[in-house]
Automatic annotation (TrEMBL):
It comes from the Bacteria. Gene3D superfamilies: 2.30.30.30, NusG, N-terminal domain. The gene is nusG. Signal peptide: none annotated. NCBIfam families: nusG. This is Transcription termination/antitermination protein NusG. It comes from Geobacillus thermopakistaniensis (strain MAS1).
């Protein structure tokens, strides 16, 4: 069951009555919403990622996402592409909720608190998986994190799609969107294509 928060527009998972293995919540990876000072979303992302690395919390805090979408405007015959915050003042954090991970996130400069807490001292409620999928898909990002095991200039085989069974050389890697740009030799002419990690394999 999910609970809609009209103040933020996010849908949160309803807390279960299962007894958790530690002080308050289940030890599982979920997405949480963090409220920030206005205009501080990207600074919070950078600050939190630095804290995670310096405090050795990589096994508890995984991804920090500022929901954005690309907008293209044409003015005076010129096309301009800009990034717009989907939820201004909010950052999404994929993490395992423990006392330590809560402390690291909550005390990051620019963070004002977690969204979805029912009261003082209570741990926040995670987002619904369906909503996370919708937000990440809107940004062109995968729901699950995948290890990047490819390198620029590496030759790989395409597994599926219109270029299936062709080989190509990796020109660029986008680990955030889990995509690569390949140069594929098509009848003596190089063609640039963009594919997801799941569509290619090592030779």
């Amino acid at each position: 069951m999910r609970v809609w928060n009209p103040a933020t527009g996010f849908c949160f998972a309803q807390k279960t009555k299962r007894k958790p293995p530690w002080g308050g919540l289940l030890m599982e990876k979920n997405w949480y919403v963090v409220h920030t000072y206005s205009g501080y979303e990207n600074k919070v992302k950078a600050n939190l990622e630095k804290r995670v690395e310096s405090m050795g919390m990589q096994d508890k805090i995984f991804r920090v996402v500022v929901p954005e979408e690309t907008e293209t405007d044409v003015k005076n015959g010129k096309r301009k592409t800009t990034k717009k915050k989907v939820f201004p003042g909010y950052v999404l954090v994929e993490m395992v909720m423990t006392d330590d991970s809560w402390y690291v996130v909550r005390n990051t400069p620019g963070v004002t608190g977690f969204v979805g807490s029912s009261g003082a001292g209570s741990k926040p409620t995670p987002l619904m998986e369906e909503e996370v999928k919708m937000i990440l898909k809107r940004m062109g990002m995968p729901l699950a994190e995948v290890d990047v095991d490819y390198e620029v200039n590496e030759t790989v085989r395409i597994k599926e799609g219109p270029f299936a069974n062709f080989t190509g050389k990796i020109e660029a890697i986008d680990p955030d969107k889990h995509k690569v740009k390949l140069l594929v030799d098509m009848f003596g002419r190089e063609t640039r294509v963009e594919l997801e990690f799941s569509q290619i394999e090592k030779i």
